[in-house]
Amino acid sequence: ENKKIEGIKLVQCEEHDWTDTAFEKVKKLRILILRNTNLSCRTIPLPEQLRLLDWKGYPSNSIPSNLKKIVALSLRHSPLMLEKPFQNFKHLTYMNFSHCESITHFPNVSEARSLRKLILNGCINLVRFDESVGFLPNLTYLRASKCTKLRKFLSRICLPLLEHLSFNWCRRLGLFPDIVGKMDKPLKICLKATAIQELPDSFVDLVGLLYLDLTSCEKLGYLPSSLFMLPNFVTLKVGGCPQLGGSFARFRESLATTAECRPSLKTLHLSHASLCDEDLHVIMQSFPNLEVLNVSSNNFVSIPACVQESSYLTSLDLSYCLNLQEIPELPSSVRKVDVRHCSFLSANTTNMLWAQVRKEIHKLQVVMPTSNTEIPEWWDYHGSWQGYPQYLNFEVRGKFPVVALAFVFGEMNYQPVGLHLSIDSRDYSAYQPSHNFTVAENHVLLCDLRVLFSDEGWKRLDAHAEHGNKWKTVKVKCVPDIIPVQWGVYVYKEETSMKGIRFSGSPKYWLESVPRSPGSLTKKRLSSAEELAIIASFPESLQTVVEKLKRLMAPIEEDQCLSLMLQDGDEEDENEDDGEEGESDIEA
After folding, report:
1. 353, 400 in Cβ contact below 8 A?
2. What is the predicted pLDDT for the residue at 545?
3. Which residues lie below 8 Å from residue 43, measured CB to CB, with a gap of 6+?
4. What is the DSSP letter of 459?
5. 66-94 as b/e, with b when 16 or more CB fall inside 10 Å?
6. Which residues are paired to 394 by β-bridges?
7. Which of 16-20, 442-446, 529-533, 545-549 has the lowest mean pLDDT?
8. Coil/strand/helix, residue 534
9. What are the residues whose beta carbons fall under 8 Å from the beta carbon of 528, sequence distance 6 or more?
10. Strand, helix or coil for residue 117
11. CA gap 32, 56 in Å, rounded
12. 8-state DSSP, 513
């Protein structure tokens, strides 16, 4: 039967299970996928008809030269050295040699002209690429992240079909190649945490550039003005580049005044960049099409009044701007404002942020310090929690009400908070997109309830609320179980009839209190008998005990703040790195 086999996937193989002639009779084998093999380093003869070879931990230091029909090679975590050029590989389109720590030089691939995707993540001893890599006519994707010894990629590149180029965390990489000829395909470039100091003037030939990430390039001191005028350039991330302020000032001086020449940039991340008030003013005036602006962890004291002219702005991140005091009235387009840890905000600014609700902005969300202020009296309903309740309750009938919610958090761990909603005990979290809010101790979360749902999910809420024309109980729960100090509800009256929403009794009864014995609560949070004995010795109320325990169990605040700042901008790329090395990539 061996002569009929065309594909094999083997998920476990030890040395004693194996013979070097295992594939001699499998003449028609085209697909070979091997996982969790534990073989000593040696050459294994493979059939010439192979099209796909995916062997994690491939035991040889060289690729068999007889694989002339191979299309895809994935030999991650292997002792490969790649000492010979890729000759007679004219059908090869995919190569993944990630975490092959013996590779020091990537060889000549001039004869592998069909190559479309090349991945070399985590090749920690890689120091050089052959120049032929820069002239592959069909290459669309090149990723070599975390190659920690790589100082230079190439002198020149002409890759007309390139769509993704990544050298994230190549901390010694200091030079970007010159561009030869126009490259007009939609292009994403990721150079996070490299030693890049400047971009070449030929960068202007990347006509198709959409996305550029230079986060944490601490030596980067200059961005050419021509970069901002590329016609398709919409996303720039340069957080953690403290020397860049002057680039924006120079760009402002050279910016043309005609609307046709205005930059198309829509997303700008410029956190940890030592920006002052004047820098921020230049940025606001230079990029009128901005939709997302992250200038967190900077030194400015106020937001310029010209922010009101940013009619496309939807998201503004000012978190950790410790000197920030004044924010003028924001344009009605703004839906998300983050001013976590901006402890010196003026009373006028705080009142303005609360008043954003009155603008009836669709899907608004704001996170800000409490500053010893309470939820304003003009909110329709507000109150405080007592005891250990779990849910905010109200009743609805007819069309589901459009409301904004406010939650004031006291002492708590620094963690994402979710809000889960149910109607008559039917959980609707399955219809909520994954949406967590980053909040902090002594902060308030203000959000339109529609933030939690897609349009289709909101239609389901409407259908359930309208069914039978009866009053139905809505519960909103913080996940994980966190006890807010205060809460509030504001009803958007132009979209909701007050006849379709009601609250039962006085505010302190609007929340459902779930009966719990002290034992059941402490068993959930603690495990050792010694800790239980400590709880029993407290003379305070159960609420006080819970708060003290949360303080004792919480990590150090400064460490949590630092961790959050580092994670805020990294999650997307970290997940992307992991995905590139997953076992399903080549199988797909």
Report:
1. no
2. 52
3. 60, 62, 64
4. H
5. ebebbbbbbbbbbbbebeeebeebeebbb
6. 474
7. 529-533
8. helix
9. none
10. strand
11. 11
12. P
In which element (H, E) is residue 416 found? strand 416-423
* Range 155-160, long-range pairs (CB < 8 A, 24+ positions): 155/131, 156/131, 156/180, 158/134, 158/183, 159/134, 159/135, 159/183, 160/184, 160/185
**Taking the CA atoms of the chain, what radius of gyration do you get in angstroms?**
29
- Say how far apart CA 7 and CA 29 lie, in whole Å: 6
Buried b (16+ CB within 10 A) or exposed e, 265-287: bbbbbbbbbebeeebbbbbbbbb
* Residue whose C-alpha is closest to residue 177's, from 147, 208, 152, 205: 152
Give the other-Cβ count within 10 Å of 195's Cβ: 16
Count of positions (residues) in the chain: 588
Sign of CA dihedral 536, 539, 541, 545: negative
Distances (CA, A) of 82 to 75, 103, 295: 12, 6, 44
Grouping H, G, I as helix, E, B as strand and the rest as coil, residue 430 is helix
Give the pLDDT score at 393. 83
User: Residues 236-254: what's their mean pLDDT?
Assistant: 79
Task: State the burial class of residue 458 (Cβ atoms within 10 Å of its Cβ: 0-12, 13-18, 19+).
Answer: middle
**Collapsed DSSP state (helix, strand, coil) of residue 396:** strand
Query: Token pair for residue 442?
Result: 């002594």
Tell me the two tokens of residue 548: 């003290």
| C-alpha to C-alpha distance for 76 and 101, rounded to whole angstroms | 10
Q: Are strands 391-396 and 381-384 parallel, antiparallel or unpaired?
A: unpaired
Residues 6+ apart with CB under 8 A from 296: 239, 271, 272, 317, 318, 319, 320, 321, 338, 565, 568
3-state secondary structure 237-298: ECCCCCCCHHHHHHHHHHCCCCHHHCCCCCEEECCCCCCCHHHHHHHHHHCCCCCEEECCCC
Nearby residues of 456 by Cβ (< 8 Å), 6 or more positions away? 431
Dig out the tokens for 139 from the structure: 């290459």
Is 415 within 8 Å of 480 (Cβ atoms)? yes
pLDDT in tens, 487-502: 889 999 888 888 899 8
Rounded CA-CA distance 129/340 in Å is: 44
List the beta bridge partners of residue 288: none
Give the end-to-end CA distance of the chain in Å, rounded to a whole number.
27
Alpha helices in 405-540 (DSSP H): 455-466, 518-525, 529-536
The residues with which 294 forms a beta bridge, in sequence order, are 269, 317
Q: Which two tokens stand for residue 584?
A: 């399903």
Q: What was the pLDDT predicted at 544?
A: 56
Q: Is 169 left (phi over 0), alpha (psi -120 to 50) or beta?
A: left
* Residue listed under structure tokens 């749902």: 453
pLDDT at residue 486 in the model: 84
DSSP class of residue 495 equals T
Integer angstrom CA distances of residue 337 from 112, 325, 331:
50, 15, 12
Going from the C-alpha of 413 to that of each of 34, 286, 388, 568, the distances in angstroms are: 44, 39, 17, 17
Flag whether pLDDT at 93 surpasses 90: yes
| pLDDT over threshold 50, residue 117 | yes
